[in-house]
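Quick entry, no commentary yet.
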Amino acid sequence: MKYKGLIIALAIVFVVIVIPILYGVSKYNGFVTQNEDINGKWAQVETQYQRRTDLIPNLVNTVKGYANFEQKTLTDVIEARSKVAQMNVTKDVLDNPATFQKFQQSQSQLSGSLSRLMIVVEKYPDLKANENFKSLMTQLEGTENRISVARGDFNIVVQAYNVTIKKFPSVIFAGIFGFREKQYFQAEQGAEKAPKVDFNAPAAK
């Protein structure tokens, strides 16, 4: 009877203490794995955005050499790039909705200014035929495609992580271990619409 009572006590300890601990360790390791996957995808997003940022100075130098090119359009690109470059972004931004939104808005503004620049370029066939400009456009187009892919991959892993930490009982362990919801990219309102440029407006001097 004595040994039977000991076995029962040990069984109770195992069920009440050991199993929850083992389960908690398993959940923690799962959170860590998903979090590191997010960090890896975020690094890819940053790399592609940085590639685009690095291409813009050469693009601006090529375009501004053409007489009567719309200076406001060019200035918008320069200013948008400056705002992006000034942001000190780390992976911690994923836990801060306000900072992440600011990051996304600055990148969207740069995308919009580049789109307007491309439309204005249609008025300059000589510029479009410039070999350096065409090479830059090819690189920029490839970078934009990689940005889109990187953002999509990032959103997939963030969504999976967010779903995991919100489910019961994972939500309990996520709270205990300090794993919080991550931010992800959302389409800007009106992003599907092409920017409007007045081709009849006089070129800025």
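second:
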Amino acid sequence: MHYEVSKATHLSEEDIHTILSCWNVPGWLQMSVADFRQRFSNSEFHLLKEDDRIVSIARINADFLLQINNTLWRVAEFVGFAAVTQGKGYGSELLRAVIKTMQDTGTVTIGFCKRELRPFYEKHGIPILYDAAKYILEKEDDNWVPSTDDDILILYATDEDMSLLNSLGKDNPGYIAAPVVVA
């Protein structure tokens, strides 16, 4: 097993097809390699490989922006976490490597999960803000709607970041902001 971090442009065509298959997002399964590389150009792919085959994947989204307390906060988002085969410990091993990398680089990183995934993250000692994801609103059409996730996962955060996240609530929601695109 080996762990590697890669940009979309450095992933092989086989890697990209494996990632899309693991994610199993309708509409993305037939995405071309060029479209994948463009769509995820500001992401890092954290991979656990065995014999040069991906066994577990996580994406770190560098384009994630949250507005909380009138503060626009750029934070790395842990997303797209999956194992090719469940129950072999690949996800656990990759999660430990990602956390170490985020801590070593000082990259503030959060993720989101549904209630049924809590035990996995609790088992790995990930700090969790229970039911806090419902206080993060996303723009859908012309309406702000609560996240479909339940919890916020803290892979790495400073005390200041934690204070900002802990301020989320019914009367103080956060808003997912669109990334600024510079031409």
